[in-house]
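Narrative of activities, Objective 1.

The group set out to show that a structural description can be obtained from nothing but a protein's sequence at a throughput compatible with the screening campaign. Below is one input-output pair from the validation batch, recorded exactly as produced.
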Amino acid sequence: MEDATRLHPEADPPREAMLRKIVHVDMDAFYASVEQRDDPTLRGKPVVVAWRGNRSVVCAASYEARRFGVRSAMPAITAERLCPEAIFLPPDFTRYKAVSRAVREIFQRHTDLIEPLSLDEAYLDVTENKTDLPTATKVAKTIRGQIREELFLTASAGVAPNKFLAKIASDWRKPDGLFVIQPGDLDTFLPPLPVGRIPGVGKVTETRLKQIGIQTVGDLRAFDLKALEAQFGRYGLRLYELARGIDHSRVIPDRPTKSISAEDTFQRDIPLSETEELIRHLAEKVWSASRKESRMARTVILKLKTSEFNILTRSYTPVVPPVSCEELTMIALSLRERIDLGPAQRFRLVGVGLSNFREAKDSPSPLFEESILGVA
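Output recorded for this entry:
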């Protein structure tokens, strides 16, 4: 088997990785919970954080709304149909970021090794903690208690020997739960899990796995490394390791976001003129995801894949970054006009992205870029 440390440059040697104590903290229904905290009349009611409208998507849903099937990234119009009594609130990201900073300050009392994933979740390496608490479980309990007592919010936490397992654990007893996975639990805990519970296994990969008879993590363990690499290339090694609870990646403080994107493949190849609706939908998803970032994205990217599997990208960096979903959408649609392959050309995929994240004080010059990449 290839050396996992070489394949994953952010990994530590296996022995060091085995000694880690990792906590994954995930705020419960964060945006909606902040709204319910700050307005007592909303408590116990189905709250959906989203702009109303046919083109809007849900940023967050309270657990009362989730009982009706409402989920993040769902079209707002679908959420309204599922839960007619829902209270829709426009997102207030300035307030959410302030609360996120307060949560981060609590984390920093215990460790400096904090890797935020978004405004509402982070990995913490508490192998050595500042408060001399004897176990990672006690650290997690203390953090959850401080968040409850000081911020009047709840958080779920997972404790495990690595990031992969800690993330699974934090979701195990949501909301307001704590779950611990010990190294000795791996052979009983992992095999029964649906393969879709592995972080990073999306719908497409899950479908491919099921097509070759892999429904559970136990099924995945039954495949040897060469068979998985034949099916999934380099990602096959990652699947092989995760099925065995192996994850050598370190907690990296303040990992900067390089880009955020969303893409979708059409059920049939279509002309460029028919891509507008999906571009608008993808722009909504990307904009919603970008609101979790403290920095601003400067560059808008449009990606298209032709029926011949050629990938085309267009990007634009305005002087002032997009300040609304509508502006992002308009830029993405304008980039579509820079594709000129004739009316007969058909496309199988479209994607929208944001990149070039900077602090708000930075102000780059306008920049147009065009490229036609090789066959995918």
